[in-house]
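Supplementary Methods, section 5.1.

A reviewer requested that the exact input to the structure prediction be made available. We therefore reproduce it here, unchanged from the version used in the analyses.
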Amino acid sequence: MSEFRLRPDADEDLKHYASYFAERAGLALSLRFLESADRLFRTLADMPGLGSLFESSDADFRSVRHFPIAGFPNHHAFYLEIEGGIEVLRILNAVQHLPTQIAEALDRNSSAE
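The structure derived from this sequence is encoded token-by-token as follows.
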């Protein structure tokens, strides 16, 4: 079975949106969001090519893929394929400035290596 791992930013994104949904619409929606995200991560780990490549003229983004979270079509998981699964970079809402958010996630990883 393939595995997934979350970068710290992705973990924080999940907590942020779960809290947001809980405050605005209740705990049931928050839990549904977290369960949908977990199912997506497991599916993508098994089939990493399922997500669409992130379209950008920036060469750094060529291997970044994304896929919407079921039931939350404006919230996408952005990830990289790694040996044995995927690494989730961020969970972002479609209204955010995606190129900036993804670039920051990629830069943080390269500076940590």
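The beta strands are 3-6, 52-53, 65-69, 72-82, 85-93. These observations are discussed further in the main text.
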